[in-house]
Amino acid sequence: MKETVEKKDLLRYILFRLLIITCILIAALIIQYSTGNPFPAVFLYAIAGFYGLSLIYYLLYLWGKWLTGQAYLQLIMDLLLITFLVYISEGVTTSTYFLYIFAIIAASLVISVKATYLAAALSAILFGVLVDGTYFGFIPHFNREVASRPPFGTVLFNLILAWAIFFAVAFFMSYLSKSLRKTRLALAQAQKELILRERLAEAGRLSATLAHEIRNPLASISSAVQMLKAEMNGNGEKARLMEIIVRESNRVSQLLEQFLDFSAPSKKMFTEIDLGMLLHETLEMLRSGGDLDGKKIRVEGNYLVRKITYYGNPNHFKQIFWNLVKNAVKAMPEGGRLSLNFYNSKREGLKIVVSDTGRGMSEKDKENLFVPFYSGFGEGRGLGLATVKRLVEDYGGKIQINSEEGRGTEIIITLPLIEEKTLKASQQIN
Prior knowledge:
The chain folds into three domains: 187 residues, no CATH class; 66 residues; 159 residues, Heat Shock Protein 90, CATH 3.30.565.10. Helix content is 64%, strand content 11%. The protein is built from twelve helices and seven strands.
């Protein structure tokens, strides 16, 4: 999984660093004035360097690019500067090395688990080199006047203890950061689901109103036109216009049915149906209505090779097929290939796979796939996939969409196989 750093987390990293530096500076000033022993100028230069780098980090943050690289840059520079502070404060023999812990904590909260262990490893290496170097004389003590050579056992013990602390903190923080990231994702998903439910409730209320205001007048108009067309018994201009009225009335009826699917959970009718034949009928309806051009779009698949039996409401599956095929056709305005296939097994259940060679989906479209009233085509009602998702979940199934912009879309619907005992029980209840 690719590492990503949130911009707001990077800002928190910068502010966290400034807080720690300021606390160290205040503590140093208190010690200086209470003891009368001034800190070396190089210490103040190091603190000033921290502040200067923080300013540069903030300017990079405002730039807003390469955030992960910025985070790693800050981490490495922090470890180097901490090592320098430990060196000038003779922290190889004291507890000043605890400053490394702040870098490890920051890496876990801001970057990733990998960065957490990397920070711990670099801390162990840098501190180990500093301790060994000063003990064996490769690195001179900063303050030669107070330099001492403690027993090797003491030095080794302090070094191992520091390493243990570094990796213990890394382990604990990696566990904590994983939990925090999972919680964050769960909250984001819950918020998205809440918005979706609110949209569904809104659509349900609207559908009830539409059903009352449109359904009956629409049925009256359609019946009247059909009667007039039959009386005329001709193919003139008036008959053609009436045919247009009937066709458009059917379109409005389809819209109304989509709204009605949100008004209340639909009652499953466990009727034996042939899904392949049902899909074939849906394709013929789309061809006759001019929505599916057989010259531009080549339809292929195994939907007529053998009988695909399932138990459910045929109207539900007509609605599913209608929306999936219409979306695929819209995605191929210049033509292409539409694949319709069925697969079933006792282990995975029934799979309905619809794929096209169309334009694919953008990242924005993927984020709003099942949001009612959102349409990625710039027109339409934005209810197609939302309707499909609700109907599929009503049967205990799930829907998966794989899409790449410019390369097409694949929709996989997985439905559980309905056992005979479940069917009989449902029929008894109904």
